[in-house]
Amino acid sequence: xxxxxxxxxxxxxxxxxxxxxxxxxxxxxxxxxxxxxxxxxxxxxxxxxxxxxxxxxxxxxxxxxxxxxxxxxxxxxxxxxxxxxxxxxxxxxxxxxxxxxxxxxxxxxxxxxxxxxxxxxxxxxxxxxxxxxxxxxxxxxxxxxxxxxxxxxxxxxxxxxxxxxxxxxxxxxxxxxxxxxxxxxxxxxxxxxxxxxxxxxxxxxxxxxxxxxxxxxxxxxxxxxxxxxxxxxxxxxxxxxxxxxxxxxxxxxxxxxxxxxxxxxxxxxxxxxxxxxxxxxxxxxxxxxxxxxxxxxxxxxxxxxxxxxxxxxxxxxxxxxxxxxxxxxxxxxxxxxxxxxxxxxxxxxxxxxxxxxxxxxxxxxxxxxxxxxxxxxxxxxxxxxxxxxxxxxxxxxxxxxxxxxxxxxxxxxxxxxxxxxxxxxxxxxxxxxxxxxxxxxxxxxxxxxxxxxxxxxxxxxxxxxxxxxxxxxxxxxxxxxxxxxxxxxxxxxxxxxxxxxxxxxxxxxxxxxxxxxxxxxxxxxxxxxxxxxxxxxxxxxxxxxxxxxxxxxxxxxxxxxxxxxxxxxxx
Length: 571
What we know:
By secondary structure, the protein is mainly alpha-helical. It has 26 helices and 8 strands.
């Protein structure tokens, strides 16, 4: 447990900082947890359950000082997307499925962490995640519009049908609910964007101003609940409220492990495991880099798995690290994961003693919190940057975006993962190839298309900027053939291996075929600047013996010197 190392040198000043940070995050997490539970289709108290033991366990096993684990928007949406097709939201069967889903995510993440294969999540490229997050934000946001409008709309399988269903109910909107929801959104936006600036102008210390700007969600909930209870808006104006929340600690829950349930939930469990970890590790690394600290990627994956294990046995649902809460934890001055332990304990106190105060919280207020929170998932700067930088990545982003909107969350993330893999294979199967020449003033060899260099009709220098494997062997063979045709007097072909880190068996066979073809054409093949491990593999196969020791060169210039042309002028 990383916490043991922390406690070995823990100080009173660190505890004071962690106490303040833990309190502030707890204040923020109470309304957020309930809001995200409703988004997931669960009773509000399950969002609090998912914020207690899971957060405490992460505090014991996590390596990030600042990461605040609990319910988040995307995971809540993924949970709702699959469970709403299997059971009625908020029903006993639905809660049981959510608990089982948390167990499956836990098993997957713990297994990946123990086996140290967390690198698998890297197959979801950043552009795909940007597109997925932007579309998910739109889907999440629109799922809350019905609560802001005060209309009753059953959720459908696709975003566009949800839009049509809400459109048909516009004539039945509840004015009081609309006013409360939009008022909450306006207040939250003010807290998020302007309050800190105004407080600083008034001379308020920056720390106080920063933390004050983070209590918007709690204020929206308090105002909404107070107005609803005082004016009896739930009965006089039909304002939807949370209703009674069970007091006390959650009872021990046992996930269902029957085969049919596991099979139906497995794709979503995989998606949540990967997407949740990607969100969590990116937040943890971003905050750690500000303090020049290191995050253990595989240990983080294991810690998230343990946190989800806690959720599975205490009535929660899948959790991960949230960006906004973690940023608040960081800004509040958290010094260690003890802050997470304190937040979990404070939430436990709230669940035991304060649940009677939650009864009159309007669903519109919680919907406003979600709407403002998910707006940050639409990263316009990243979208613009990807579009200008690489159109292939932009295509992946756009495809992932529309797949989520029109095919659904689950299918969208699968399309994104498949597209990421396709782009990896496509790029490595079509590696950059450069024909080299010698710079006139130095023993350096560069691309003939970019520099004025010396070349020779009887010698070709070819550099392939990728490792050689089965997917790009045809490209390699085609490149060599085109080079031979382009230089009718070619006598020596030097393959420069500075960018080759590996050669698999298919590529080895391709090299053997190239060697024999060149020999038949009376052209000598040379290897230059190949790395030691690559040469070791080629030596074991016997390829270097067939090639001949005199055709293996330490550097490109050494090869040209041996061929006796390094000092000749351009022909």
